[in-house]
Amino acid sequence: MTTGGESHGPGLTAILQGMPAGLSVDFEVLEREMARRMHGYGRGNRMKIESDAVEVRGGVRGGETLGSPVVLWIENRDYKNWVPMMDPKKTVPHRVEQRRVHLPRPGHADLSGGLKYLRRDLRDVLERASARETAARVAAGAFARMLLSRFGVEIKSGVRSLGPLGQDAPVPTWQDLQAVDDTSPLRAIDRALEPEMVELVDRAKEEGETLGGAVTVVAHGVPAGLGSHVQWDEKLDGRLAQAVMSVPAVKAVEIGAGITASRGLGSEAHDWIERTSEGLWHRPTNRAGGSEGGITNGEDVVITAYKKPIATLRKGLPSVDLDNLEPRTSQYERSDVTALPAAG
Predict the structure, then answer these.
(1) pLDDT for res 334
(2) How many angstroms separate the most distant Cα atoms in the chain?
(3) Which domain, by its residues, includes 174?
(4) Could you give the C-alpha distances from 102 to 82, 141, 302, 321, 341, in angstroms and in order?
(5) How many structural domains does the chain have?
(6) pLDDT value, residue 343
(7) Span 45-71, mean pLDDT?
(8) Cys staple from 316: which of 155, 162, 248, 329, with CB 3.0 to 4.6 Å?
(9) Beta strands in 70-220 (DSSP E)
(10) 70 φ, ψ (degrees, to nearest 5)
(11) Are 287 and 261 in contact (CB under 8 A)?
């Protein structure tokens, strides 16, 4: 999968390769996944503008995939407000200057991207580094979900922690995630924490702050044998960790109970193998998160992503003006207080 497009440009494109021919496309699933991304307490005003309707521009005919690359397009409705600054053919210089970013935000790609690509206007960096890009990933992910469902694999997720709330919770199970209310404002796995979470988000918003936390994803029905121990880049847990880590603001990835296991003894860290009455094997626990040696073992695949607080703070952070190298407060761009519910 590859994506293209800027946050305030005309739109976003996703190209998904490797989809088999003959997969029935459920457009309701596609719409539901896109709507799910826009949902959640703590989101910014951008979600009041966008509709995130996906237009399929290739690889599908008559509701079935063709085996060729699936091409998806999502229009940025906010682009109409940014044409003078973001038009691919010609921009309006004084309008570009008005929105030029020269006060890099700590925690963002602004400064490092500007240095790498020698951009005087850091908007050239932040437009692509924006989490808006994840809309294209979600659209492509909906197709992956449809393919997995053909093999009986189901996926669910939820918010495990928000700020300090829920940070000591045990690793969620498939049963825990089945109980998550997808219509709730925070999609908390522990629903008893939601009132406190709402208060925490409100307080952070008033103070110009942002919040991070953790979301857990569980894939149920995954067969044993996916991935390989043979080469480092074929290990499934490594590939999954890289994909999850690439999501904006994710700073740590945990497979199963990896963090807890690192603090204990070997006899407490691994999943015993038991024989069932049918002559098959069974694991009474799933601390490995469904992967051993880079290969799925038939248990649920469990991944937790830890997201740092969003780096765009309304109150700003100490920075340096790139025009004169004087100390300044970082620039503010419209943002969320937290994106945990959207990620979960």
Answers:
(1) 74
(2) 76
(3) 153-321+329-344
(4) 18, 35, 41, 6, 31
(5) 2
(6) 87
(7) 89
(8) 329
(9) 70-75, 154-162, 213-220
(10) -85, 125
(11) yes
